[in-house]
Amino acid sequence: MHQATTTTGGPTLSTQSRLGRRLIQLYAGLALYGASSALLVEAGLGLEPWGVLHQGLAELTGLSIGVVSIVVGAAVLLLWIPLRQRPGLGTVSNVFVVGLAMDATLATVPDAHGLAVRIPLVLAGVVLNGAATGLYIAARFGPGPRDGLMTGLHRRTGHSIRLMRTAVEVTVVVTGFALGGTIGVGTVLYAVSIGPLAQVFLRVFAVPRASDGSTVVAGGQPRGAILRP
Question: Suppose 25 and one of 4, 71, 139, 176 were both cysteines; which one would form an S-S bond, judging by CB atoms 3.0 to 4.6 Å apart?
Fold first, then answer.
């Protein structure tokens, strides 16, 4: 039987095994993202921007932070309609899997007391979030609802992705903080490290293409965008 080869003569992944790997990466990345966000919640030293909003809304409504994440993700997805964005499997899965993984992790991880425990938790949360981002994006099943909002605004307004992302994330952080969400050293650490961490893990988890065995890290996404669930 003929076996596909790379330009260097080595075998490539079959179409079926590539798809299987991508699906595993997608759902492992989303679950790990939810778990890493839960670790930041447990650490209590500051959350990622959207996490601040989710926590603030959870305080306001009495719902779990995972359920709030699902509701917010679904609401943001509705905003894709006027922006003419098309969701993928990863987009829809993101709405549910991240929130469910957050609540499951929060239900199983013991409460953290003392900086000797909370500092390692926040460090683990940030690093695991970077790994989750790499897994999820490299699977190439579409951006998360929140990132699709930023890229959609970029296309509709003509402003840079960086400007759109900054405007959106500042808005959600300020709103979340006003509602009772946590801002702290973890928020700053996340902001300065998630980009480099994501780039490293994107290369680690890149899936070979079918045609030539080359790898992609964020196919079809705007240049310079770091996408997060």
Answer: 139
